[in-house]
Amino acid sequence: MIVVHLIALAVLQGLTEFLPISSSAHLILLPIFEGWSDQGLAFDVAVHLGTLSAVVVYFRRELGVMARDWTGSVLHRRHTADSRLAWAVLWGTVPVGLAGLALNDWVDSTMREPTVAVPIIATTTIVFGLLLGWADLRGRRQRDEHTIVWRDVLVIGIAQAVALLPGTSRSGITMTAGLMVGLTREAAARFSFLLSIPVIVLAGALEVLHVAAAGAPVRWSELVLGTVVSGVSAYLCIHFFLKLLERIGMLPFVVYRLLLGGVLIWYLTRLP
Q1: In terms of pTM, does the model score above 0.85?
Q2: 16: exposed, middle or buried (C-beta count within 10 Å: 0-12, 13-18, 19+)?
């Protein structure tokens, strides 16, 4: 890969993984529109490792408390708000884990075909962008992530499974569901980010198996650079997004999604 392409894709992954605008869609669309060759699964693993590192480092204190209290809930049946949050993250991952095992090969193969990917991304970008705007406008926004109950976990977990479709946005659909069940914007975002940790681990492990099975040569310098760049950009994205979210709301991201969807529809009309 050309270094400029590598850096652009890594920055794009780091920014869009946690913004409600779909990282998978942008990683598919940029090479299509720029005429670049597909970056390959090994690079996808590297940039996902970077974003995983960013969210773990950013929430290291919260994760430490959650791990301690979760262990206490298992060994001593001593439940706290943080142990319940840890269980919510784990159970909320089950639907997307099952859906990923069933559909991942189809998504990976089919969604790399421009004639299939672009119409689907255009549709999901607009539909789920409008849903995000509606949830932000109508949500009660009264609860934090420690008040999540099993019904909320079910709703958010099922919503996350839908994000296997490119253009949906894992962070976007989980924030949408969080707003729908009454979480504040920041609580919905924080739970979405925590929920990303097991999802990225599972997705990365699956991609590692695919890379190993393919037996393709690995360019380690590219992968290390991609990991570092995506990690730094993801950390900055999380930090500033949480700082600004209550002030700016979801409207800028809704507008962006509608504009992107409109551009993709225009692009489809220009195809021969």
Answers
A1: yes
A2: buried
pLDDT tens readout for residues 234-250: 999 999 999 999 899 99
Indicate whether 98 pLDDT > 70: yes
In the chain, alpha helices (H): 3-16, 23-34, 41-58, 60-75, 81-110, 114-138, 150-162, 170-180, 185-214, 220-248, 251-270
Hey, CA dihedral for 57, 61, 64, 69, is it positive or negative? Answer: negative
Q: Which of 22, 29, 45 is nearest to 230 (CA)?
A: 45
How long is the chain? 272
Between the alpha carbon of residue 33 and those of residues 27, 114, 123, the distances in Å are 11, 10, 18
CA end-to-end span of the chain, whole Å? 29
- Judge whether 264 and 121 are in contact, CB under 8 Å: yes
What is the chain's alpha carbon radius of gyration, rounded to the nearest angstrom?
A: 18
